[in-house]
């Protein structure tokens, strides 16, 4: 399942030594909420999943939840701010029908929806030689 995204918000979790550290929540022009990425530290990553709390047969009510290491948080925010347009993708680990309020997924990813032009970005030589 793929969800196009056009908006995001960031939440940092206070007083968290380990576990969930931050979340990036996604929306698009037709949905208030499309999914999120949860960033974890010091624990095994939970399985990414499709969340369908109300109606598993209605794709507009199925949300994508990706789990990532907190080590990728800053880079993910930087990519969101400087590249795009974006979509997120996650497919169920078992064929439909979905069961319960969530279904384990596999192959989750955040991806651009169009090709980027070569040489489009700025190059910072200082990053190569600190």
Short description:
The protein has 130 residues and is mostly beta strands.
How would you portray this structure in words?
This protein is mainly beta and 130 residues long. It has one domain. It is 8% helix and 42% strand. It contains one helix and eight strands. It has an eight-stranded mixed β-sheet with strand order 1-7-8-5-6-4-3-2, with helices on one face. The longest helix has 10 residues, at 73-82. It starts with a strand and ends in an 18-residue tail after the last strand.
Query: Count the strands?
Result: 8
Distance between the termini: 41 Å
Molecular shape = globular
Strand order of the largest sheet: 1-7-8-5-6-4-3-2
How much strand? 35-45%
Helical residues, percent? under 10%
Largest sheet: 8 strands, mixed
Task: Determine the mean pLDDT.
Answer: 85
Number of helices: 1
Q: H/E series, N to C?
A: EEEEEEHEE
Structural class: mainly beta
| Number of structurally distinct domains | 1
Radius of gyration from CA coordinates: 16 Å
Low-confidence blocks of residues = none
Keywords:
8% helix, mainly beta, 1 helix
Give a topology summary.
Elements: E1 2-5, E2 7-12, E3 19-27, E4 35-41, E5 49-51, E6 63-69, H1 73-82, E7 86-92, E8 102-112
Parallel strand pairs: 4-6
Antiparallel strand pairs: 1-7, 2-3, 3-4, 5-6, 5-8, 7-8
């Amino acid at each position: 399942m793929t969800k196009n995204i056009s908006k995001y918000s960031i939440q940092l979790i206070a007083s968290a030594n380990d576990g969930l550290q931050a979340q990036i929540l996604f929306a698009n022009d037709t949905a208030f909420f499309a999914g999120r990425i949860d960033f974890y530290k010091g624990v095994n990553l939970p399985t990414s999943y499709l969340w369908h709390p109300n109606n598993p047969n209605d794709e507009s009510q199925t949300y994508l939840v990706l789990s990532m290491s907190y080590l990728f948080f800053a880079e993910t925010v930087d990519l969101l701010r400087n590249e795009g347009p974006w979509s997120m993708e996650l497919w169920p680990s078992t064929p439909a029908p979905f069961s319960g309020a969530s279904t384990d997924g596999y192959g989750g990813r955040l991806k651009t929806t169009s090709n980027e032009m070569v040489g489009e970005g700025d190059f910072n030589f200082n990053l190569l030689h600190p």
